[in-house]
Amino acid sequence: MADFLPELGRAAPRLADGLLVTVEATVLGAALALVLAYALGLLSRSARPPVRGAARLVVEFFRGTSLYVQLFWLFFALPMLGFRLEPLACGVLALGLNFGAYGSEVVRGAVAAVPRAQTEAAIALGMGPALRLRRVVLPQAHALMVAPFKNLLIQLLKATPLLSLVTVPDLTFQIDQLRSSTGATAASYLLLLGLYFGLAVVLSLGMNALERAAKARAGQEGGV
Amino acid sequence: MPTEDLAVRFDRVTKRYGDHTVLDGLDLEVARGERVTLIGPSGSGKTTILRLLMTLERVTDGVIHVAGQPFSHMPGRTPGKLVPASERHLAGRRRRIGMVFQQFNLFPHMSVLDNVVEAPVHVLGESRDEAARRARDLLELVGLADKVDARPTRLSGGQQQRVAIARALAMRPEILLLDEVTSALDPELVAEVLDVLRDVAHRTDITLLCVTHEMGFARDVSDRILMFDGGRIIESGPADELLEAPTEERTRAFLGSVR
């Protein structure tokens, strides 16, 4: 422990780099997941059975196969087929696909939870399906999505250490380096726990603010 | 009556939900500008008629015509054959019709003004300024000029329903459907909504189809009252006549129960 603190000081720039990589993987993974969640969630409510079926299949596949295996497949198997992605790109893609599949259920559920009467009122005003979705249903569904999305976002953050297994120099990767050079296993991993917890708290507070804003916009100040 | 003078014509319209028949081969004609009130026990099919006209439900059998043209159906590939209307066929045509709902169904994420402005801007393509000016006039008409910036959830039921009336009128419908518009209101709020509707009925030449249990209102605004039971019209006539001297026993029993 005596030489842990000086080592930590020397490692600080690398830890900062690792923290940045973790944040980057989280933000990019979440952004891709959000896009996929919307696309898959809305397609799985399509009136056309083939479209709905295809969306459901994709969702079930990426929910039903482990993130760990998806990541390894992208990193080790895909190059054999002639496509080589950067390690971080593999990570972001795997996180996006996996959490996008979970997120699509959030989108689907929230859209289904907006009362049918709202759609009927929009039909009575001559609004077509796209306009109804965009102007009436989604703005109200958003308020219902934020809380479950918050859970998924924190889970996504906590899934990013997997990326260190495919050589992405994230926070876990850098702390592991520190641990091997100092041998201070308990202190290193305690620090790692603390850092992830700190990141989760920041994300959580951000999402809480977003939820309050979304509810106020949706006219649900008094709770859902 | 020549078909072009008809706002609405139901031609042997049947509506079934599974084994349950709500409307059974209904024939119904409503002239342009006519005010018709549908009365009858709950479950007799009155609201279904409005919902079919608003395309919230599809007919099981028969055809609905609006303004002399097939509405629930459209010409198919075989000449002379009608097929169920596509969303595209309905898109333009349903703009002739507006509806006010029992539960108001205002958009909670928009201000009162935006509720009224929304469809004229995004469906009719009016400019926002023009639509907002008209919306303010309509909100004035329903007595809510001071509530334009409020959220609907902050208003009383009667105020919400008056916004819903303004919202429907903003689309300049030729036909207005009123589906038990006072049934969800506290008794002391019923009058303010009915007064607004009387005003609309007297100022405009809009065709009205109205489902209500308010017989005084039915008498004031209707040219004709239709008594429904079991998915069929069992009696119809001018408002005064039908309310004063119903010929059918079931009509008498029903009127006795709502008074």
Q: What's the level 1 CATH class of chain A? A: Mainly Alpha
* Strand segment tally of chain B: 12
CATH architecture of chain B: 3-Layer(aba) Sandwich
Encode the helix/strand succession of chain A as letters.
HHHHHHHH
Give the overall pLDDT of chain A as a whole number.
Answer: 92
Q: What's the CATH H-level superfamily name of chain A?
A: MetI-like
Which shape of chain B, going by the Cα principal axes? globular
Tell me, rounded to a whole number, the average pLDDT of chain B: 92
Biggest protein-protein interface?
A-B, 22 and 29 residues
- Largest beta sheet of chain A, briefly? none
What does this protein look like?
Chain B: GO terms for molecular function: ATP binding. Chain B: It is a peripheral membrane protein. Chain B: Keywords: Amino-acid transport, ATP-binding, Cell membrane, Membrane, Nucleotide-binding, Transport. Chain A is mostly helical and about 220 residues long. Chain A has 8 helices and no strands. With about 260 residues, chain B is α/β, with parallel strands linked by helices. In chain B, the strands form 3 sheets. A 6-stranded mixed sheet of chain B has the order 8-9-10-3-11-12, with helices on both faces. In chain B, strands 2-1-4-5 form a 4-stranded antiparallel sheet, with helices on one face. Chain B has a two-stranded antiparallel sheet with strand order 6-7. The model of chain B has no long low-confidence stretch (mean pLDDT about 90). The interface between A and B is medium-sized, with 22 and 29 residues.
Short summary of the structure?
By secondary structure, chain A is mainly α. In chain A, 80% of the residues lie in helices and 0% in strands.
